[in-house]
Amino acid sequence: MSQETLENQGGRPADTRGEAGNAKRLRLDPDVRNAVILLGVSIALIAASRVLGPGFGSFAQIQAILLISSFLMVVAFGQQMVILIGGLDLSIASMVTLGGVLTFSWVGDSGTALIWGIPAILLITGAIGACSGVGISLLGIPPFIMTLAMGIILYGATLGLTQGTPTGAPSPFLSSLFAHTAVGVPMLYLMVLAAFGGWFLQVRTSFGRKLYALGTNPTAAYVAGLPVRRLTILTYAISGASAGLAGMLLVGYVSGVTLMMGQSYLLPSVAAVVIGGTSIVGGRGIYPGAAAGAILLTTLSTIVSSLGIAEGWRTIIYGAVIFVALVLLRDDLHVLLKRNLRGSGRK
User: Is 24 within the bounds of a domain?
Assistant: First the structure.
């Protein structure tokens, strides 16, 4: 059958298939698209807030939003890695607090303590996270139960260690990181580099590809010869170290520490990851999406708090926006809507 006959009968010529293939390759990846949408919504919210007052939507407010969101981005990195393999880390709140308490107590204004203290704190929080990974991978304890128990134990240990009142001093070095610039580089650039680094680790390294395989099908990953237990332990160690780093940075930002400083990061870390397009059952998602989710949640929280809305209504608005974002970013919902529209068009 000739090429002309194919065209007359509605067949697709070879060059048309090539063009369609090129169009498909140029199409934006769904995970990248989600991140772009979330950033767009954040920008729209900031722009719309300008009608509320002269202080809203200003450059200073944008700087503050980006700065505050950086802590959630750090916590969300570890949480996203864990969720990527089909897990969950509920010990993050206690880990953030422990990182802050140890930084306040050990580092202070001593340059010598800064050299050994920061690596030691990251090793400790990473080791505690690894313990959760051991319980999950070797003992078969569900991630929800294991990390919840670890968080409770860790909070009790921190409370006993400090006797309810952490002592120490803030670190001038850590505080200097939040004067809108860090080591002479704007904080915004550091955030972009961190998001790119997280994406590169997950998408462009063998370790990241193994995590996707583990999250997609743990049984198949085991049969394929992947070190499932080792990967699980290492992932939870990364989550613990990320939370410890967030606690460390918080001490530099607020120049102090409280035993409840990590509580406000537990649920938002999960929300930022899921809103960012990471599947809650694992196997799909990229870190830039979680970073964009953290920026959106921080933007929303900042604007709502600035309006002086009562706590109850703030919680309702916060939850409603998260729900709407999750619904709108579902790919299966988009497919269903397209099907329904096509069906109604035929009728």
Answer: no
- With CA atoms as reference, report the closest residue to 329 among 302, 293, 294: 293
CATH of the domain at 234: 1.10.3470
Kindly state the DSSP code that residue 105 receives in the 8-state scheme: I
Q: How many domains in the chain?
A: 1
Written as six digits, the tokens of 90 are: 């509920």
Q: Which tokens in the block code for residue 62?
A: 């944008």
Q: Domain of 143?
A: 29-337
Distance CA 344, CA 275 (A): 30
pTM of the model as a whole: 0.84
128 part of a folded domain: yes
> Is residue 256 in a domain?
yes
Spell out the per-residue pLDDT of the chain, length 347, in tens.
444 444 444 444 444 444 444 444 445 677 788 888 888 888 888 888 877 766 677 777 888 888 889 899 999 999 999 999 999 999 999 999 999 999 988 887 666 677 888 899 999 999 999 999 999 999 999 999 999 999 999 999 999 888 888 888 888 888 777 766 655 666 667 777 888 888 898 888 999 999 999 999 999 999 999 999 999 999 999 999 999 999 998 988 888 888 999 998 998 899 899 888 888 888 888 999 999 999 999 998 888 887 777 777 777 877 787 777 777 666 655 555 566 666 655 55
Cβ density class 304-317: b for 16+ within 10 Å, e for less: beeeeeeeeebeeb
